[in-house]
Amino acid sequence: MKKLPVFVLSTALLLPSAVPVYAADKAPVVQSQTLTYEQALEKAFASSIPLKNAGDEIDRAFEVRQSAGSSIEYYPTGTGNGAQAAIDRAKIKGVAQADAVWGISKRQYELEKDNIIYSVKNAYNNVLKAQKQQKLADASAKNAELQKVLASYKAAEGTISLYELSQEEAKFESALKQKAAAAKAVEDAYLKLNSVIGASKETRFVLNDEPQFKPFDKDETELENDIVYIVSNSNAVAMAEDQVKLKRLDVDLYTYNAGNTTPYKASEIDVRTAANKVQDTKQKLSDGMRSIYYSIKQLEDQYKVLLIEKEKAEETLKMAKVRYDAGVGIKADVVTAELAVANNEKQIFDTLIQLDNLKLAYEKPWVAAGGAGTASGSN
Which residues form a coiled coil (predicted)? Predict the structure, then answer.
């Protein structure tokens, strides 16, 4: 079979008339206004209905607590006997319960803020991630198009079969579909971010807070110290402990011979059950932090490997450009090498996104490990 000279292929691939022209995708109008992560967070706080309701619940719980306390004439202690003792103790339990609910409402407000912080971080980073994927998909489509054109010249000269040509054409069609899917993913990511921060669905902020690599310099001893500190200061744990206090009141102020539907022994079991939930919440937070810690360490190792691979890809690109400039290489090889670099950069960026999300989850494990939901569900 006759082979086409390299310089002919190179020239042909550079001629505008040799490459079919496709209509440019209609890109959404992007606002010039930039949006940092902190700005996104402030918008989310200001627009969150659940957060506003949680704030109102604090005021409501306080009013209930004040009202309950105003009817107390004296404070009985220990178990009682008879209907009047039950009434007196019910008032005390009512105040204690109202006081606990007030405290829980304040902790719930902080947990709601933490959930928003985590949601905004994920939504913001997902837009950045989708945009990087779109750039990679565009580069992939460009490469696939050049490979298809190159294959068409080779097929015309008989150096490849029509089947091989059809394979390159299929790859190009697939790349176009992936390009369209990547553009759709960017739109979806923006819609989710806009929903979280309370912006209109048409808004397209320019996001400029890309995560940067910062070593996670913590050893396992520091991990265990962090676990003790975070679990001890967790609102999720505190809320579970409040439930124990409330259940303990039912035992400490139990009244016999007052038509109680809950036996004394059953109330004791309720205390143990609530205490078990405290331990369960602590265990989940501890396990979650350890899991996050090791995931971060593994991703940091992966990041270092990707940097080495990037250097290799960049060297391959450099050589492809040298060969092309010297007239012994073709543009398609340069584009392929550029795509390899772009793919590696996308992997690096995805790793940075994961690290950024995980480091926040390490500081607030209850939003990632379900600690908040566990505690609030026990109210």
Answer: 129-156, 296-323
